[in-house]
Design goal:
The structure holds two protein chains of two kinds.
Chain A lengths: L4 E12 L2 E12 L3 E6 L5 H8 L7 E6 L2 E2 L5 H9 L1 E4 L11 H12 L4 H14 L15 H12 L6 E5 L7 H18 L2 E6 L2 H7 L2 E6 L2 E6 L1 H5 L4 H11 L6 H11 L1
Parallel strand pairs in A: 3-8, 3-9, 6-7, 7-8
Antiparallel strand pairs in A: 1-2, 1-4, 4-5, 9-10
Helix pairs in contact in A: 3-4, 3-5, 4-5
Chain B lengths: L1 H33 L8 H11 L4 H25 L6 H39 L2 H7 L4 H39 L4 H11 L2 H27 L10 H30 L1
Helix pairs in contact in B: 1-6, 2-6, 3-4, 3-6, 4-6, 4-7, 4-8, 4-9, 6-8, 8-9
Classes of the chains: A alpha/beta, B mainly alpha.
Chain lengths: 264, 264
Amino acid sequence: MAADDIIEIRGLTSFYGRRKVLHDIRLGIPRNGVTVIMGRSGCGKTTLLRHLIGLKQTSRGQLFVDGQDFGAFGEDALKRYRRRIGVLFQSGALFNSMTLRENISVPLGVHTKLADETIRIMALIKLHLVGLSGFDNYMPSQLSGGMRKRAGLARALAMDPEILFVDEPSSGLDPITAAGLDRLLVELKETLGMTIIVVTHELESAFLIADQLAVLDEGRVLALGSPDEIRASTDPKVVQFLRREADQEETDHSSYLEGLLRAG
Amino acid sequence: MTQMIQLIQSLGARALDELGDLGRLGLFFHYMLRGLFRPPGKFLFVVKQVWFIGTKSLFVVGFTGAFTGMVLGLQGYYTLSKFGSEGMLGSAVALSIIRELGPVLTALMVTGRAGSAMCAELGIMRIDEQIDALECMAIDPHAYLVTPRLIASLMALPLLTAFFDVTGIYSGYVIGVQLLGVNEGSYIEGMYKSVEWADVYMGIVKSLCFSVIMIWISTYKGFFAGVDEGNFGPEQVSRATTDAVVVSSIGILVGNYMVTSLLL
């Protein structure tokens, strides 16, 4: 484990019923960096994410957060950990019966003793951050999928988390919105020093934002390293994975931007 | 021989599943009650639920009460007139409604109307990852979603039962006295003499118990919609809703017998 790893995964093996979905995962998540976990659908990346946010119990293997054994966390320790994290779910997971502002106010209202007016202003600031100013009184059902996802991100950021987990940020988004979201994630890392863990199968976005990339295949870590190291990998499966999706995609920054301009 | 072993294995697996389910149901009850002493207490949400469970059920409960009272008036008159004791009609109608039919039928109607809706709402929250999102925000989903509904139901159901009782007794009066010509004085006097505080008390205790059963089962079914299958879709919500109504209704009928035998 590197000294500055905020989370360390040691030998994590996971099951759904009798089906083994993760095999002996070993991975360190460096502090203040963007770690992207990528792989094809069904490779176990979302399951890994659910372990990291404590939604799936670890039956075999260990997770360490700041050097402390996650499996030994009691209810209070888990609660403290969860106050340090923000999670953007694949669907956005907004509460349907509340407006966007109320959605973002939920964690603030429960965990802080701030005045209602302060909470309202903070919620508006978070909405502005994700480019949704003026939509504070909209219900989630009145928004597009991309807007719901961004609102979900605003809620995940409500408590200024130290670690941000993002599940499939760009799935279902148009290229421009997806690029905006990528840029926002990088900004959050750079300006607030957030540790960000992104689960995705979008190669382009992964190579653009990642400091560390982990390629998962059938529940195993196939390759781990910086984007350059992954690109240079000679592992046939990694090469196949990258080629399969990279056929019509360039991973070079300038052509990525050109692609965006064309799409616009 | 192998078939025999397979049969025993599948029986054992089934028994373990059922036992696990029972354990989870018990824990859910514990968390629901624990929510009474934990934040977030949401006064406004409780008021909204009282409106949803109580006010919105007034019509259906009143309607059921009216027709139950009317049919009791008819049947009671027919039976009592065989013994020449039509004068007892008031006490027969009042006692059967206050002790039995009022609490049971009200609870069954409210389960059909509000219990199913609550189950569906929680089921949708489950499949849309909203319950996961609450957990990740370090908010106790039981205290946030289930306990306020319990408090609201404990307030609304006894009042609805009282409304049912009054409507039923008055409808019995209309049929017995005004249609069939039973003496008005003996209808009122018989009821006045035979109904004691213990009868009313039994009705209140029953409706409180039924509130707990209805909320416990309905929210449990919604809360865990699709969790066992590991498959989260509309089909799971619809199945959970059907289960919620059937199991709650059975629970109410069995509970009714048990409370009656304890209080008699």
